Amino acid sequence: TGDGDLDPPAGQSSGGSGGGASAGSVEQAGNITYRLIAPGSAGPYPLLIVYSGVEGGANMTSNLSMVKDFVGAQDFVFAVLDGVTYNGNGAAGATVLDAERALYDIDNDRTYLLSESAGTTAGLELGLQLRQSYFAGYWVNDVNANGAPMLSAAELGFQPYGNVGPGGDFVDANAIVAAMQAADYRTPPPAPYDGPGSDTHGDTNQFIAAMQWFPGKTRQ
Hints:
- Helix content is 29%, strand content 22%.
- By secondary structure, the chain is of the alpha/beta class.
- Strand 5 (106-116), helix 3 (120-130) and strand 6 (137-141) form a beta-alpha-beta unit.
- Helix 2 crosses helix 3.
- The radius of gyration is 16 Å and the shape is globular.
- The two termini are 15 Å apart.
């Protein structure tokens, strides 16, 4: 499509307003329930949409709160969907993405997606199909399924970043990375992630590696 047609436009932000600081409050976007972490400072902000695993949205939100400063994501807005409740429902994440862009001044080039375990199928649908052009980077963590990007980087007008934390499922992890690479995604090594926790489902080390991966990545 080329940069001129990129949705949302490169080098801009959403211009949203009205959202305040939040430390994990439960919010509604239409009929979708999610949890919100947001700084009280001025934007534009990076945004990370998260589909939790079976630990649930509340536990995932707590985990994010604990690691965000440590991994350099203290200025992020985080919107967390329960991966069990919204299993396979990528549209739920699209609804929350739109809500956050309306409430906060979100950086169009620094919007990210993390899905984990039970949230895998919904994340793959949201990040690789429904709203592919929105995400500068997508880390698929503790996978239990695989998928492929709908559009190539050339068709999108930019090269997204992608990676997978296998959590023991190396077959699906390798399949997703291969599909991302075939679509000319940027997959800096190791891809799939092969460090501590890569062979264990639900390992904290792999989660931290995923969180450290996002800051600094941009669609540009």
